[in-house]
Amino acid sequence: MAVYYAKYGTAWDLHGYPLVDRATGQYKSSPTLASGDFKIEKDGGAAANLATLPSVTPAAGVSIKIPFSAAEMQAKQITIRMQDAAGAEWNDDCIHIFTVGDPSAAMQLDTFAATVGVSAASQSAIVANVWAAQRSLNAVVGSFGEGVSSVQGDVTGDVLGDVAGNVTGNVSGVVSGLGAGAITALTFATGALTSDSMTQGFGQKIADEILNRNLAGGGSGNSRNVRNALRSLRNRIRVNGGTLEIYQEDDSTLAWTAVSTTTAGNPITEIDPS
Question: How much is the pTM?
Fold first, then answer.
């Protein structure tokens, strides 16, 4: 007895099947094959002769070819019973065939196809179940489910959207921008900030903020800041009556003033650097 799988509703030939000599127990060479020797039963139905009688192929050999028509392959399970109706030349035998690749077959999956086809309904059901799956149920460490709920491992490509969560690893690429309040704490390794690691514009912004820093600390923008303190050392200064005038860098626009007290003699009334 042998078991085979074949495509539902598709004609095919079974090659190389041997019959055993009843007298010697060895494969029978050039066995006699006659009508009625090969019966087919489909899904337990009544037995009938095969549409095409098997033949010895190749000639004078021990192998026979058993052809099956498309109609004969339209069943879930097919049974072939082989009996030497005219005598006792070869032993009785039986073949069971299970069909595949059709909704009416024993196995709907087509195991002979190069690719496995999935119906549109099945595709939709698979997609729906994947997207409906709870992340908490698919969070095994190292799994794709865990990766969906949070980014695990290195991101070697570009992130085109916004990152609302935390980035606990290193960012070696370029970050185009950060939202307001995005950085709440930041530390730098020794030597991390160098002239090569920051743009000229970034360095200038830091310098400008230092110049605008209040001398008392705690904020920026007050008139008593570093910039105004340095102006009295480099810019134009004039004593105008009882007022000390400190000018901006153009030496014509007032930066700040102070009440001055003079003494008899020849006091300095103006300092105007070139």
Answer: 0.49
